[in-house]
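Blackboard transcription, Thursday session:
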Amino acid sequence: MPQWFVRGLRRGLVTTRYPARPDPLAALLPGPPSFRPDALTRQVADDLVQICPSRAFVRAGDELIFDAGACTACGRCRERAPEAVTLSGEFELAATDRAALVKRIPLRDE
Amino acid sequence: MNPGAMDAAAPDAAPSSIEETADVLRRRVARQFGRSLHIRTLDTGSCAACEQEIRLLAAPHYDLHRLGFFFTPAPRHADLLLVTGPMLRAFASAARKTYEAMPSPKLVVATGACALGGVYQPDEFSYGSVAGQLPVDVWIPGCPPSPLALLQGLMVAVDRMAERAWHLTFLSGGAQ
Amino acid sequence: MTALLLFAVAAAAWLAAAICALPLAKPGRGIWVSCGLSAVGGVIALAGGILALLSADSRVVSPGGSVVVGSLQLQVTSLSGVFATLVGVVAIAIGLYLPRSGRNAVIASPAYLCAFNLALIASITVLSAAGVPTFLVAWESMALLCYLLILHRPRSIQVAGGAFWFLALSEAGFVLIVAAFVILAAKTGSLEFSVIAARAHLVSASWRNTAYLMALAGFGFKAGLVPLHVWLPEAHPVAPADGSAFLSGLIVKLGIYGIALFAFRLLPEGAAWRGILTMGIGAVTAAIGILYAMAERDIKRFLAYSTIENVGIIVTAFGAAMTFLAYGQRALWAFLLLAGLYHVLNHGCYKTLLFLEAGVTEHAAGTRDMDRLGGLARALPRSGVIAFIGTLGIAALPPLNGFVSEWLIFQGLFQGFRTHSDLVAILIVVAAATLGLTGGLAIYAFVRGYGIPYLGMPRTEGAAQATERGQPIAGPGFLAVACVALAVGAPVVLVGLSRAIRTATGVSLRPILLPGKLTVIPAHTNFSGFSPTYLTVFLLAVLVVPVLIYVAGRPRGDSVVVPVWDGGMLAFKPRMQYSAMTFSAPTRVSFDALYRPAVSVRRASDDPAGRSGPVHYESQATPVFEKYLYRPVVRAVEWLADVVRPLQSGDVNLYLLYVFLAVLVAYLVAAL
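(Written on the board underneath:)
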């Protein structure tokens, strides 16, 4: 019996059941951030616009426009403002319309 | 356009009748590829991280063959063009030729932050995004997108899974 | 109306053509008259040949002669009739090919036309010779006239070299042929072939075998058996296209006729080792011929080596036939002779066709180098189709004629077990396996030989500018029709050939050969059978299936014409296509030991690879036979000449001393 065959039988099935069933490894994946609007001040927003290396943020008046398509999940925004930015845990991000990935995040009223 | 808009109305989605017709057409096209889809990958100048993740799709853990997807090197045999990279200007004509060599009906899926417009700005070397050069049907964000994200994107492209991008708000503590 | 009369009329027509060619001080309409007469002579010779192979051997006719060359004795046998039909076909084809119009026309010179027609007369005389002097005179004149044919541009050194190779080896062969004939004539006491054949059994076995071996080698020089083949790749490229066609299509076959004459008419009975030796030489010739063909870029050298391969196949068939006779298998003896003769006819047709097409290519595109051609099937559509038919034939692909004759030869060889001798059966199977190897390599070689020049895109301007205006179509077209006719009409051809075989060997193959009028059975009913006609019909019917599938299932919408997918390159240059040498590279690497290539690589500078500037790569196959066989022999002859030279001092007194000594010795010998 070849080694790989025996090893395979012992290990069992390793293929993921996704998309029929959720994949347990999905939670470990890096992905785009989530925002807490009540922690997002104008100052924080401007900092985020400056700090993102992929230009995923634009501030338009009272809103922070976040382009999830441009996000590289580098984590700099979370590092700068951990009270406002957390991991979203989302990975099912596919969009047929590019505009669907551009989200408007409301800033905190000041 | 959003084929899954039927289940929940997202705030920004407002389909009109023309868009619904396009939607039906798209779904008919997608039905053609429902059971077997041949994918041609195209690297327009990426760092190859996306390619590594695409390569993993064929590995035992993700195994895209069980879903009826196959890789092919020949654009003449391909149904779907999977594009990565920020579309270098030097590559644009080759990308155009690859797209034109594919027989209709065909789909284009752009994946990776570079292809979607992030990371690189348009300059004298690259267009910054594949948007202007190829007609893209599905965008898959990520840097690089994990194989699971790629699988979801491919399933959305052939209309076997619902698109969720419209519903996502990226607001923590609530409505997802 | 006997065949001999028809041959005489044909010869008269060719003589008239030669005379008509003479006043052509400058080319004009006159060339059509001369070539027309050649073609007419060809038609008559074809009719005579068919008549000859269907009837019994004619009487010996002696229409006089002279004291110098002996009496002229003519007789038409069925064996010579087979070859005479080939003379007729080749004469018609070349007669239709020679006149050409158009801006690139190179009109044949009067001397060339004269030599061509006289060579035809000499060939038909060789075939109808009934006695040794007639044969030898006709043979030598045929050789000299062919030398003149090749030497159409005597001031060019390559042409002179190629012609010299032809003449030198022809003369070497002639010496051996004369020796063989002299041995037989002396031992049987007569100069007539029929008398020699009748009295052959009275000659001792050792003399018979010596005569046979000398004849095999002598005619082998002309036929192109390895290692006596060297003149073929030298002479064919330098001769004009129709000259090469004439050489390969006809003259080489006269060498085979000579071998057949000795093997089947004059000395049929003999030990088995004669046949096995002949078979072995034939098999080796076939394999080496096609292997060298794979390494050639020049179309004509490639075709020349392919001729060597086919000659090997024919001689293998003859050798196996002789072996079977030695073991008492008369049916297989006759059958393999028939198969070999069929292959002679087939090869004559398609090789002549391919050489004529090579001439068309050379005139249309300006080059014979495969790596400078491409896309000719689009530039020369009709020539492309004709060349394709010839290629299918020579690659022995069904349903064309090459397949039929090679199948017959294989079926004969596979019945080696009927000799009831294990060793011989194994040797015959080894020969069959070698022929199988050559068959596969031939397909490979001719995919290359047709695909590189005719398909794809033109690699140079010359090929791109090729046009069919003014190129002869009738000559090659006639041969293409002949190839198809020989294939589809195989039953008819086999009936004719079996009549000829019955006359030549006394074995009646007809009942065994074609029981149901359309099926061929190789000599014994319990072995195999197939029908070439039904095969053709079947193949054509099967071709209908994909057509039906297409018609039923093709997409109904608009179709778009898009450029060929070339990997997305900015500019696809035709030189990026597969080249002739890369296509054959796998074979050349596998058979490296045969080619022993001498490779030289020169870089423009010593900078690392990629920045060193142009790289010059040259690979030359070692000419094994010239280096290890011919050069030593030539050097030995030169050494001998040097040793003997002191005798030729030029001093008259010394010569008078020689005369005195010779007379003294003669008196002493006569007295004792």
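Lecturer's comment: The domain at 35-157 of chain B is CATH 3.40.50.12280 (Rossmann fold).
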